[in-house]
Amino acid sequence: MAEKFQRSSGILLHITSLPNRFGIGSMGAEAEEFVNFLAKSGQKLWQICPLGPTGYGDSPYQVYSSFAGNPLLIDLDSLVQNHLLNKSDLEPAPEFNAQYVEYEKVCRFKDKMFRLAYDKFKKKIPQRFKVFLVNNAFWLEDYALFMALKGADNGKSWLQWQPELKLRDKKALAEKKSELTDEIRYQQFLQFIFCQQWQKLKEYTNEKGIKIIGDIPIYPALDSADVWAFPQYYQFDKEHNPSAVSGCPPDDFSPTGQLWGNPLYNWEKLESDEYSWWVARFAYMLEMVDIIRIDHFLGFEHYWSVPFGSPTAENGVWKPGPGHKLFATVEKELGNLPLIAEDLGAITPAVERLRDDFNFPGMKILQFAFYDDDDNPYLPHNFTTNCVVYTGTHDNETSVGWYHNLPDHIKNNVRNYLSFLKFTDWEVGWKLIEAALDSVAVLAIAPLQDYIGLDNRARFNIPGTVGENWRWRYMPGVLTPQMAEAILRMVRKSKRL
């Protein structure tokens, strides 16, 4: 069976990590400058995290919608160019930390700017906005109402709303729609601007010969428009409270397991509706990005079900997922899926069979490679071509931080495998990147932190923690022409151009 992708390489960097004077990366000039750097470096792929509007913890993997975009990524300078803001509106802007996102501060400032822009926008609403509302009604109506209701109730989870709103009583919702008309329209305006800016950036990226890899978390957040609007697709009781939630079983690293708390799907109901929600999700995602990485792929074959209210994940049980039926249905509707399977963790032969039957490449992480003997499946000489190799992902340490924290005998394994006597900080990441590029894996991807040679102060996420994650940004001026040339030489040598 032919591979889905051509031999190539790319860089992992979320939009929030771009430099920008307003405290967070955006879809403006700095994004295009990064795309230019990718092109000069011979890269054909740009991998990002999910684009949705983030809630508690600022995680792009816990968002208020599987379809909506994060308004914080909207570029303010572009709003000036489109005459929705005056240049004077942006001055004086607050002083923002250049290296780390200060989410609360950014939210306050950007919401103020967005509402100024909306005041101008609604005086003369363009026809294309009305077309946008029609084309996206299947998700946008519920999302805009959800966000307006949440805002009117001090940000409370929908599970704590008045019963008639929680349970979606038609009369109560109609009254709220009338009462919150302007706020609903504001939320729709933000999504319109987001989609305009994103499509412009995607077109620019594609014109440079670069494809965007987007990310789909398997489960939506419990406090999301998806779950509130389609309770029948989740394991809920009659009061729309979860009967079971997601997690992972106990293992050597976590004796009580991992309690994620996301709602679990009612796969029987989804199947009876021919997986229409998933078809819509994949279809919309493929309008936004070129390739999809699907998080926690094993959950489609079997999933860990924890009774709601359990303090840990210990009392969960394995239950069967939809398996082949889901992907066969989606491919029947949408054709061959350009999908990467995040097949990390306790992978069984059944998960491998599901992945391979649809020819989805799995993932190899070099930071997992040096702990065992030569049979370790993450060592490059054990790869098959139909896989994607990473030095590390958004959840891992940077390569420099990882190497510094290794015990001496594992450091020896790394140096011996890479034929190197001693590493400087900069060289650790580059030697791992070189090993990834030279491997037979069809795609090779590294976080930007590894190219810059940064330690764990630049780590993007520490799973299971809240507060300091998703904040790192690279500083202006670090992506030099010399770095692009050096990367291009490696890419050319590894025949990934």
Note the main attributes of this structure.
497 residues; alpha/beta; TIM Barrel; 8-stranded parallel β-sheet; 4-stranded antiparallel β-sheet; 18 helices; 11% strand
Number of strands: 12
CA-based shape: globular
Structural class: alpha/beta
- The Cα radius of gyration reads 23 Å
Strand % is 5-15%
The CATH architecture category equals Alpha-Beta Barrel
Question: Terminal Cα separation, in Å?
Answer: 23 Å
CATH H-tier superfamily: Glycosidases
What string gives the helices and strands in order? EHEHHHHHHHEHEEHHEEEHEHEEHHHEHH
> Biggest β-sheet: count, sense, barrel?
8 strands, parallel
Side by side, the strands of the main sheet go 9-6-3-2-1-12-11-10
Low-confidence stretches: none
Helix content: 25-40%
CATH C-level category: Alpha Beta
Helix count equals 18
Mean pLDDT: 96
The CATH topology corresponds to TIM Barrel
Written overview of the protein:
The protein contains 18 helices and twelve strands. It has 497 residues and is of the alpha/beta class. It has one domain: Glycosidases (TIM Barrel). Helix 1 links the parallel strand 1 and strand 2. Helix 4 crosses helix 5 and helix 5 crosses helix 8.
